Amino acid sequence: MQDVQSRKTGEIDKASLTGSLRRDAVKKHVAAIHVSGKLTLLQRKLSNVLLLNAYDTLTSQQTHAIDARTLCLMIGYNSNDMATLKQSLRGLAETVAEWDMLDASGQQEWGVSSLLSFATLKQGVCEYGYSPALASKLHDPKVFALINLNIQRRFTSGHALALYENCYRFVRTGSTGWWSLDLFRRLMGVADSSYYEVYKHLNAKIIKPAVAEVNKTSNIVVRPEIRKRGRSVTDIRFLIEENPQLSIMNIDDGAGARNTVVYARLRDLGVNDRLARQWLTEHGEEYVLAKLAYVAGQGAVQNPVGYLTAALREGFETASAPAATMTPVQQLRANRLGQIRDLVASRTPTQRDADRRAFASRIKDAAARDDFERHGWMSALNAQDIWHFWQELSPDLI
Length: 398
Description:
Belongs to the initiator RepB protein family. By secondary structure, the chain is of the alpha+beta class. About 45% of the residues lie in helices and about 15% in strands.
């Protein structure tokens, strides 16, 4: 998806590693994936959203789908600008990913694949797929790390996002290792520009602005170091530290989370390991446990994982009043809330985020906006507008 130079073992390229990079810890991450061609900022964001949307079924399904309107909203396109979306999808399908790594048995593996094997737009839905070989690499957390979309949205520069993506892979190692300037220019998408063959220009226009934005915007802090041959700069690497002020969803190796009762209940419900640990890190055990109790109190639901996802995101609470004591207006409100909850539960994480942002952009009143931020789709001050919003998305609502 993204331009990535991930961790190599000492056996692959030991001569290029120095100091602590020669230690065995580096061998935990043995792959290198990088992408040829130039990707715009929107294309980078698009590739990340598509990957996150497909991640849980990346190796079990060949085709993935997301509604085009949601996709556009998630990456900042005008939701009616299908021409730009088509152009970006075409660019991803025409861009080549290449890897050179050790496989599970320690054998060298080289491979090449287009970023997307196909993409279609039909009846408002984007369907797309990855080659099986690339999908297996993207799904392996030792090879490839998902980018947090909350952080991605903050970037305004494609070069800064590219630098972040390539450095974030190495946050546990503390350094990217040495890259030749030729490879670095390729990762930044400026390999075909003679202007950036001059290090002074590359440093002033690409490296310094990108480093400044990464350090200001993201959950890591990077610092470049250069290596020279004579007076010429030949290689660059980036030292990486976590940014304690902007650390978001820093999921550990799972030893702690996997030993908790809440984690076990999530797994029993059908939540995958990665998502269970993410929820526990993001929300805390007490909050997740409360939402598990909420879902259990709803009786049999078709999609308990989807329902729990919505409950965590929207802060659903158990209704305090029994149906028999409700007024007709309250019963109507409860019925509508139930339909909205089911709709929210049926949406993917990227779709739900886009839905919230789309509705929030319509709210003009400050108090109503604050109420929506605190209560989400359960916001009483926005109840009527929320109902109309979901009617637009699903005309079958009654």
